[in-house]
Amino acid sequence: MPGSTLMERAGAGVVACLQRQLGLLRGKTVTVLCGKGNNGGDGLAIARLLRDHNVQRIRVVLPADPGEYKGDAKTNLNRLKEANISPEFEIPLKLQDRLEVTVVIDALLGTGVKGAPTGRVAKLIRATCEFPAAKIVAVDLPSGLGGDGDMVRADVTVTFSTPKVEHY
Q: Taking the complete model, does pTM exceed 0.90, yes or no?
């Protein structure tokens, strides 16, 4: 099955989970943190699919230059334009803006990462603690889990296929 199809299915699964957890998504404010690998590609698909649910504001935050995205993640990054979403490189700086965020989606790192997160990815992982009113939703597994460094403290983890070793 093509990777782009898997990403669409993963994105739809996360959106369905959000609906079960939060009810109607209309009026919610969502920040999606998207790494440059397959997990990030899932996050980019999620952001685009959320537009169909009348989310009030969708902010996509990238830890890397868009030119570093490859394959299916790059395809989904390019498809953000269809949803009129422009990626950003920083989380909201003002506390008031962070208080308004309803959901933070962690799609930074997946199962293929070895070692502790570094650089901007580590900074964004730490930033997930700076959204006092948001539910933190991890895609497949919380970023940094099992890496001997900072990790996302997710309220909900939506995984695909089977549980991962890191879940235990």
A: yes
